[in-house]
Amino acid sequence: MKRRIFSAEHEAFRDTVRSFLAKEVLPHYAQWEKDGIVSRDAWRAAGRQGLLGLAVPEEFGGGGAPDFRYSAVLAEEFTRAGAPGLAIGLHNDIIGPYLTSLATDEQKQRWLPGFCSGDTITAIAMTEPGAGSDLQGIRTTAEDKGDHWLLNGSKTFISNGILADLVIVVAKTTPEGGAHGLSLLVVERGAEGFTRGRNLDKIGQKAQDTAELFFHDVRVPKENLLGARDGAFVHLMTHLAQERLAIAVAAAAGAEHLLEITTAYVKEREAFGRPLARLQHIRFEIAELATECAVTRAFVDRCIEEHTDGALDAVHASMAKWWATELQKRTADRCLQLHGGYGYMTEYPVARAFTDGRIQTIYGGTTEIMKEIIGRSLLG
Question: Is residue 243 among the annotated active site residues?
Answer without folding.
Answer: yes
